[in-house]
Protein backbone atom coordinates (compact mmCIF):
# COMPACT_ATOMS: atom_id res chain seq x y z
CA UNK A 1 0.00 0.00 0.00
CA UNK A 2 1.33 3.47 -0.97
CA UNK A 3 0.45 6.41 1.28
CA UNK A 4 0.28 9.90 -0.22
CA UNK A 5 1.87 11.95 2.56
CA UNK A 6 0.77 15.34 1.22
CA UNK A 7 -2.91 14.34 1.27
CA UNK A 8 -2.82 13.50 4.96
CA UNK A 9 -4.25 15.96 7.46
CA UNK A 10 -1.60 17.76 9.61
CA UNK A 11 -2.27 15.70 12.75
CA UNK A 12 -2.07 12.48 10.75
CA UNK A 13 1.17 13.65 9.15
CA UNK A 14 2.69 13.98 12.63
CA UNK A 15 1.46 10.51 13.59
CA UNK A 16 2.77 9.08 10.32
CA UNK A 17 6.23 10.61 10.91
CA UNK A 18 6.34 9.29 14.46
CA UNK A 19 5.48 5.76 13.31
CA UNK A 20 8.08 5.82 10.52
CA UNK A 21 10.74 7.18 12.92
CA UNK A 22 9.97 4.53 15.52
CA UNK A 23 10.02 1.78 12.89
CA UNK A 24 13.34 3.04 11.49
CA UNK A 25 14.88 3.15 14.95
CA UNK A 26 13.80 -0.40 15.65
CA UNK A 27 15.26 -1.60 12.33
CA UNK A 28 18.48 0.32 12.97
CA UNK A 29 18.83 -1.04 16.49
CA UNK A 30 18.23 -4.58 15.23
CA UNK A 31 20.76 -4.09 12.44
CA UNK A 32 23.36 -2.78 14.90
CA UNK A 33 22.64 -5.67 17.23
CA UNK A 34 23.09 -8.26 14.48
CA UNK A 35 25.98 -6.87 12.48
CA UNK A 36 28.23 -4.86 14.80
CA UNK A 37 31.20 -6.37 16.56
CA UNK A 38 31.36 -4.03 19.55
CA UNK A 39 34.67 -5.43 20.73
CA UNK A 40 36.16 -4.33 17.39
CA UNK A 41 35.56 -0.67 18.21
CA UNK A 42 38.95 0.95 18.99
CA UNK A 43 40.13 1.54 22.52
CA UNK A 44 40.96 5.17 23.17
CA UNK A 45 44.40 5.70 24.64
CA UNK A 46 45.22 8.52 27.01
CA UNK A 47 48.03 9.84 24.84
CA UNK A 48 45.37 10.86 22.31
CA UNK A 49 44.32 13.75 24.57
CA UNK A 50 46.14 16.93 23.57
CA UNK A 51 46.12 20.30 25.31
CA UNK A 52 44.40 22.87 23.08
CA UNK A 53 44.15 25.96 25.26
CA UNK A 54 42.53 27.64 28.25
CA UNK A 55 40.43 30.54 29.46
CA UNK A 56 39.66 32.31 32.75
CA UNK A 57 36.49 32.65 34.84
CA UNK A 58 35.57 35.99 36.48
CA UNK A 59 35.57 36.25 40.28
CA UNK A 60 32.82 38.86 40.12
CA UNK A 61 29.99 38.50 42.63
CA UNK A 62 26.74 38.28 40.65
CA UNK A 63 23.33 37.37 42.02
CA UNK A 64 23.52 34.75 44.76
CA UNK A 65 27.20 33.77 44.50
CA UNK A 66 30.63 34.00 42.88
CA UNK A 67 33.04 31.43 41.42
CA UNK A 68 35.55 31.45 44.32
CA UNK A 69 35.68 28.09 46.17
CA UNK A 70 33.52 26.50 43.49
CA UNK A 71 33.25 22.71 43.62
CA UNK A 72 33.31 22.83 39.84
CA UNK A 73 30.22 21.11 38.44
CA UNK A 74 29.34 22.51 35.01
CA UNK A 75 27.72 21.65 31.67
CA UNK A 76 28.19 23.06 28.17
CA UNK A 77 25.36 24.19 25.93
CA UNK A 78 24.85 22.31 22.65
CA UNK A 79 26.95 24.76 20.63
CA UNK A 80 29.59 25.13 23.39
CA UNK A 81 29.31 28.91 23.20
CA UNK A 82 28.36 29.05 26.88
CA UNK A 83 28.25 26.86 29.97
CA UNK A 84 26.35 26.63 33.25
CA UNK A 85 28.52 26.37 36.35
CA UNK A 86 28.00 26.01 40.11
CA UNK A 87 29.60 28.80 42.15
CA UNK A 88 30.83 29.00 45.75
CA UNK A 89 30.46 25.74 47.68
CA UNK A 90 28.40 27.39 50.44
CA UNK A 91 25.81 28.77 48.01
CA UNK A 92 25.44 26.01 45.38
CA UNK A 93 24.11 28.61 42.94
CA UNK A 94 24.23 28.24 39.15
CA UNK A 95 25.30 30.89 36.61
CA UNK A 96 25.70 30.93 32.85
CA UNK A 97 29.03 32.09 31.38
CA UNK A 98 30.30 32.58 27.85
CA UNK A 99 33.07 30.51 26.32
CA UNK A 100 35.62 33.06 25.05
CA UNK A 101 38.32 32.49 22.45
CA UNK A 102 40.50 29.59 23.57
CA UNK A 103 44.19 30.54 23.67
CA UNK A 104 46.85 27.82 23.55
CA UNK A 105 48.65 28.83 26.72
CA UNK A 106 48.54 28.37 30.49
CA UNK A 107 49.92 31.87 31.05
CA UNK A 108 47.14 33.82 32.78
CA UNK A 109 48.18 37.11 31.19
CA UNK A 110 47.56 35.71 27.70
CA UNK A 111 44.15 34.13 28.37
CA UNK A 112 40.69 35.52 27.61
CA UNK A 113 38.09 35.99 30.36
CA UNK A 114 34.62 34.42 30.24
CA UNK A 115 31.64 36.73 30.77
CA UNK A 116 28.71 36.15 33.12
CA UNK A 117 25.62 35.89 30.91
CA UNK A 118 23.17 35.03 33.72
CA UNK A 119 23.87 35.75 37.41
CA UNK A 120 24.05 32.97 39.99
CA UNK A 121 20.75 31.59 41.25
CA UNK A 122 20.51 29.32 44.31
CA UNK A 123 17.92 26.77 43.20
CA UNK A 124 18.70 24.31 46.01
CA UNK A 125 17.69 27.02 48.45
CA UNK A 126 14.36 27.38 46.60
CA UNK A 127 13.74 23.65 46.92
CA UNK A 128 14.64 23.62 50.61
CA UNK A 129 12.08 26.32 51.27
CA UNK A 130 9.35 24.13 49.76
CA UNK A 131 10.42 20.61 50.71
CA UNK A 132 12.14 19.00 53.66
CA UNK A 133 15.42 18.09 52.03
CA UNK A 134 19.04 18.28 53.10
CA UNK A 135 20.71 18.37 49.69
CA UNK A 136 23.69 20.72 49.87
CA UNK A 137 26.04 19.73 47.03
CA UNK A 138 25.27 19.80 43.30
CA UNK A 139 27.13 16.85 41.81
CA UNK A 140 25.91 16.77 38.21
CA UNK A 141 24.54 19.08 35.51
CA UNK A 142 23.44 18.29 31.96
CA UNK A 143 21.97 20.69 29.42
CA UNK A 144 19.13 18.92 27.56
CA UNK A 145 16.68 20.62 25.18
CA UNK A 146 16.96 24.02 26.88
CA UNK A 147 16.61 22.53 30.36
CA UNK A 148 19.10 21.59 33.07
CA UNK A 149 19.06 18.18 34.67
CA UNK A 150 20.54 18.55 38.17
CA UNK A 151 21.87 15.83 40.49
CA UNK A 152 22.67 16.63 44.12
CA UNK A 153 23.53 14.88 47.38
CA UNK A 154 23.82 15.61 51.07
CA UNK A 155 27.52 15.99 51.91
CA UNK A 156 27.16 14.25 55.25
CA UNK A 157 24.30 11.75 55.17
CA UNK A 158 25.06 10.03 58.49
CA UNK A 159 22.03 7.74 58.25
CA UNK A 160 22.83 6.78 54.65
CA UNK A 161 19.14 6.97 53.78
CA UNK A 162 19.14 9.67 51.12
CA UNK A 163 16.74 8.93 48.26
CA UNK A 164 15.69 12.18 46.56
CA UNK A 165 18.63 13.37 44.49
CA UNK A 166 17.50 15.08 41.28
CA UNK A 167 15.48 17.96 39.88
CA UNK A 168 14.98 19.89 36.64
CA UNK A 169 15.51 23.58 35.90
CA UNK A 170 12.86 24.00 33.21
CA UNK A 171 14.18 27.10 31.45
CA UNK A 172 17.97 27.28 31.41
CA UNK A 173 17.87 30.66 29.67
CA UNK A 174 15.87 32.19 32.52
CA UNK A 175 17.62 31.06 35.70
CA UNK A 176 16.07 33.85 37.76
CA UNK A 177 12.41 32.99 37.16
CA UNK A 178 12.38 29.45 35.83
CA UNK A 179 10.10 26.73 37.16
CA UNK A 180 11.60 23.71 38.88
CA UNK A 181 10.40 20.10 38.71
CA UNK A 182 11.18 17.31 41.16
CA UNK A 183 12.45 15.97 43.33
CA UNK A 184 13.22 12.67 41.63
CA UNK A 185 14.71 9.53 43.08
CA UNK A 186 17.27 7.65 40.97
CA UNK A 187 17.66 3.94 41.52
CA UNK A 188 21.14 3.71 42.98
CA UNK A 189 20.80 6.93 45.01
CA UNK A 190 24.22 8.45 45.76
CA UNK A 191 25.92 5.70 43.73
CA UNK A 192 24.28 7.18 40.63
CA UNK A 193 23.58 10.85 41.39
CA UNK A 194 26.65 12.59 40.03
CA UNK A 195 27.85 13.41 36.51
CA UNK A 196 25.54 12.98 33.52
CA UNK A 197 26.75 12.34 29.97
CA UNK A 198 25.18 11.31 26.65
CA UNK A 199 25.39 7.73 25.40
CA UNK A 200 26.75 7.77 21.81
CA UNK A 201 25.92 5.38 18.99
CA UNK A 202 26.09 2.44 18.59
CA UNK A 203 25.66 1.91 22.32
CA UNK A 204 22.55 4.12 22.37
CA UNK A 205 20.79 1.88 19.85
CA UNK A 206 21.85 -1.30 21.60
CA UNK A 207 20.88 -0.17 25.10
CA UNK A 208 17.90 2.03 24.16
CA UNK A 209 19.25 4.58 26.60
CA UNK A 210 20.29 8.16 25.84
CA UNK A 211 22.25 9.05 28.99
CA UNK A 212 24.35 7.60 31.74
CA UNK A 213 24.92 8.94 35.21
CA UNK A 214 27.63 8.13 37.74
CA UNK A 215 29.42 9.12 40.91
CA UNK A 216 32.08 7.89 43.34
CA UNK A 217 33.20 8.19 46.97
CA UNK A 218 33.58 11.98 46.76
CA UNK A 219 31.76 12.88 49.99
CA UNK A 220 31.44 11.47 53.51
CA UNK A 221 29.87 8.19 54.70
CA UNK A 222 31.36 5.46 52.54
CA UNK A 223 28.55 3.03 53.33
CA UNK A 224 26.21 4.93 50.98
CA UNK A 225 28.77 5.41 48.18
CA UNK A 226 30.55 3.51 45.45
CA UNK A 227 34.21 2.97 46.30
CA UNK A 228 35.18 3.59 42.69
CA UNK A 229 33.58 5.36 39.70
CA UNK A 230 30.18 4.17 38.51
CA UNK A 231 28.10 4.13 35.34
CA UNK A 232 24.30 3.76 35.33
CA UNK A 233 22.10 3.93 32.24
CA UNK A 234 18.98 6.04 32.66
CA UNK A 235 16.26 7.67 30.59
CA UNK A 236 15.36 11.15 31.85
CA UNK A 237 12.92 12.17 29.11
CA UNK A 238 9.76 11.09 30.94
CA UNK A 239 10.68 13.77 33.47
CA UNK A 240 12.11 16.30 31.00
CA UNK A 241 8.96 16.23 28.86
CA UNK A 242 6.80 16.90 31.91
CA UNK A 243 5.09 13.49 31.90
CA UNK A 244 6.44 12.81 35.40
CA UNK A 245 6.79 15.82 37.70
CA UNK A 246 8.36 13.85 40.54
CA UNK A 247 8.96 10.30 41.68
CA UNK A 248 11.20 7.30 41.01
CA UNK A 249 13.33 6.91 37.87
CA UNK A 250 14.87 3.48 37.18
CA UNK A 251 18.52 3.00 36.23
CA UNK A 252 20.58 0.08 34.94
CA UNK A 253 24.04 -0.43 36.47
CA UNK A 254 27.03 -1.08 34.24
CA UNK A 255 29.78 -0.25 36.74
CA UNK A 256 29.34 0.01 40.51
CA UNK A 257 31.29 -0.70 43.69
CA UNK A 258 30.74 -0.73 47.47
CA UNK A 259 32.58 -1.06 50.76
CA UNK A 260 32.29 -4.84 50.43
CA UNK A 261 33.39 -4.78 46.80
CA UNK A 262 35.69 -1.74 46.30
CA UNK A 263 37.68 -1.01 43.17
CA UNK A 264 40.80 -1.72 45.26
CA UNK A 265 40.70 -3.41 48.70
CA UNK A 266 43.71 -1.56 50.17
CA UNK A 267 42.05 1.86 50.45
CA UNK A 268 44.76 3.32 52.73
CA UNK A 269 47.56 1.79 50.62
CA UNK A 270 49.20 0.13 53.61
CA UNK A 271 50.88 -2.26 51.18
CA UNK A 272 52.41 0.56 49.14
CA UNK A 273 51.26 -1.26 45.99
CA UNK A 274 47.90 0.43 45.32
CA UNK A 275 48.22 2.74 42.32
CA UNK A 276 44.56 2.39 41.30
CA UNK A 277 42.07 3.87 43.81
CA UNK A 278 42.53 4.99 47.43
CA UNK A 279 40.48 6.55 50.20
CA UNK A 280 41.10 10.04 48.78
CA UNK A 281 40.36 9.23 45.11
CA UNK A 282 37.50 11.08 43.41
CA UNK A 283 35.70 10.51 40.13
CA UNK A 284 34.59 13.88 38.72
CA UNK A 285 33.21 13.13 35.24
CA UNK A 286 32.72 10.04 33.11
CA UNK A 287 31.66 9.57 29.48
CA UNK A 288 31.73 7.03 26.69
CA UNK A 289 34.09 8.36 24.03
CA UNK A 290 32.26 8.42 20.67
CA UNK A 291 33.34 5.89 18.01
CA UNK A 292 35.25 3.94 20.61
CA UNK A 293 35.00 1.07 23.07
CA UNK A 294 36.07 3.30 25.99
CA UNK A 295 34.36 4.66 29.09
CA UNK A 296 36.66 7.41 30.34
CA UNK A 297 36.55 8.83 33.88
CA UNK A 298 38.71 11.69 35.10
CA UNK A 299 39.18 13.03 38.59
CA UNK A 300 41.78 13.03 41.34
CA UNK A 301 43.76 10.53 43.35
CA UNK A 302 46.46 10.41 45.99
CA UNK A 303 48.41 8.37 48.50
CA UNK A 304 49.82 6.02 45.88
CA UNK A 305 53.42 6.78 46.82
CA UNK A 306 53.29 7.38 50.58
CA UNK A 307 50.01 5.94 51.77
CA UNK A 308 46.94 7.45 53.45
CA UNK A 309 46.44 8.45 57.08
CA UNK A 310 43.32 9.38 59.03
CA UNK A 311 43.69 12.88 60.53
CA UNK A 312 47.37 12.45 59.83
CA UNK A 313 50.07 15.05 60.18
CA UNK A 314 51.51 15.49 56.70
CA UNK A 315 55.17 15.96 55.89
CA UNK A 316 54.60 19.71 55.53
CA UNK A 317 53.17 19.99 59.06
CA UNK A 318 49.51 20.21 58.05
CA UNK A 319 47.11 18.16 60.23
CA UNK A 320 44.21 16.76 58.20
CA UNK A 321 40.58 16.74 59.30
CA UNK A 322 40.00 13.29 57.84
CA UNK A 323 41.73 10.87 55.45
CA UNK A 324 44.61 12.41 53.48
CA UNK A 325 47.87 11.48 51.83
CA UNK A 326 50.77 11.33 54.28
CA UNK A 327 52.89 13.26 51.80
CA UNK A 328 51.32 16.61 50.97
CA UNK A 329 52.36 16.46 47.31
CA UNK A 330 51.20 12.88 46.88
CA UNK A 331 47.98 14.07 45.17
CA UNK A 332 47.35 14.46 41.44
CA UNK A 333 44.80 14.59 38.67
CA UNK A 334 44.00 11.09 37.45
CA UNK A 335 42.01 9.10 34.90
CA UNK A 336 40.58 5.59 34.53
CA UNK A 337 39.40 3.89 31.29
CA UNK A 338 37.12 0.85 30.98
CA UNK A 339 36.14 -1.28 27.98
CA UNK A 340 32.48 -0.60 27.24
CA UNK A 341 31.84 -4.05 25.78
CA UNK A 342 33.03 -5.47 29.12
CA UNK A 343 30.64 -3.18 31.04
CA UNK A 344 27.91 -4.41 28.70
CA UNK A 345 28.33 -7.89 30.19
CA UNK A 346 26.78 -6.56 33.40
CA UNK A 347 23.66 -5.52 31.52
CA UNK A 348 23.34 -8.48 29.17
CA UNK A 349 25.19 -11.40 30.80
CA UNK A 350 24.71 -10.76 34.52
CA UNK A 351 28.36 -9.99 35.27
CA UNK A 352 28.77 -8.26 38.65
CA UNK A 353 29.14 -4.47 38.23
CA UNK A 354 32.10 -4.50 40.63
CA UNK A 355 34.02 -7.15 38.65
CA UNK A 356 35.38 -4.72 36.02
CA UNK A 357 38.88 -3.27 36.10
CA UNK A 358 40.18 -0.39 33.95
CA UNK A 359 42.45 -1.22 31.03
CA UNK A 360 44.37 2.06 31.51
CA UNK A 361 44.77 4.60 34.33
CA UNK A 362 47.21 7.17 35.67
CA UNK A 363 48.05 10.89 35.54
CA UNK A 364 45.61 12.81 33.37
CA UNK A 365 47.82 15.81 32.47
CA UNK A 366 51.41 15.25 33.54
CA UNK A 367 52.35 18.87 32.93
CA UNK A 368 49.70 19.87 35.49
CA UNK A 369 49.50 16.66 37.48
CA UNK A 370 49.19 18.35 40.90
CA UNK A 371 46.33 20.59 39.78
CA UNK A 372 43.00 19.45 41.22
CA UNK A 373 40.21 18.69 38.76
CA UNK A 374 36.81 19.85 40.04
CA UNK A 375 34.65 19.66 36.91
CA UNK A 376 34.57 18.50 33.30
CA UNK A 377 32.34 18.14 30.25
CA UNK A 378 32.86 16.72 26.76
CA UNK A 379 31.60 18.40 23.59
CA UNK A 380 31.20 15.64 21.01
CA UNK A 381 30.70 17.93 17.98
CA UNK A 382 34.22 19.35 18.34
CA UNK A 383 35.86 16.43 20.24
CA UNK A 384 36.84 18.87 22.97
CA UNK A 385 37.13 17.99 26.63
CA UNK A 386 36.68 21.00 28.95
CA UNK A 387 38.30 20.53 32.37
CA UNK A 388 37.98 22.92 35.32
CA UNK A 389 40.89 23.09 37.78
CA UNK A 390 40.59 24.53 41.29
CA UNK A 391 42.36 27.70 42.51
CA UNK A 392 44.60 28.17 39.46
CA UNK A 393 43.81 31.83 38.67
CA UNK A 394 45.53 33.88 41.39
CA UNK A 395 45.67 37.22 39.54
CA UNK A 396 42.13 38.54 40.04
CA UNK A 397 42.29 38.93 43.82
CA UNK A 398 44.87 38.69 46.57
CA UNK A 399 42.26 37.08 48.84
CA UNK A 400 40.63 34.43 46.64
CA UNK A 401 41.71 32.36 43.65
CA UNK A 402 39.43 31.49 40.75
CA UNK A 403 39.33 28.14 38.95
CA UNK A 404 40.86 27.87 35.48
CA UNK A 405 39.33 26.12 32.44
CA UNK A 406 41.64 24.03 30.29
CA UNK A 407 40.49 22.59 26.97
CA UNK A 408 41.80 19.37 25.40
CA UNK A 409 41.28 17.76 21.99
CA UNK A 410 40.73 14.03 21.62
CA UNK A 411 42.99 13.52 18.62
CA UNK A 412 42.33 9.83 18.03
CA UNK A 413 38.69 10.47 17.06
Brief write-up:
By secondary structure, the protein is mainly β. It has helices spanning 10-35, 123-130, 203-207, 237-240, 340-348, and strands at 49-56, 74-76, 82-86, 94-98, 116-121, 137-144, 147-153, 164-169, 180-186, 195-198, 211-214, 231-234, 247-249, 251-255, 282-288, 294-302, 308-310, 323-325, 331-339, 360-363, 373-379, 384-393, 402-410.
Descriptive report:
- Keywords: Signal.
- The chain has 413 residues and is mainly β.
- It has a single domain, classed as Tachylectin-2, Chain A (5 Propeller), CATH 2.115.10.
- It is 13% helix and 33% strand.
- It is built from five helices and 23 strands.
- A five-stranded mixed β-sheet has the order 6-7-8-9-13, with helices on one face. A four-stranded antiparallel β-sheet has the order 1-23-22-21, with no helix packed on it. The chain has a four-stranded antiparallel β-sheet with strand order 2-3-4-5, with no helix packed on it.
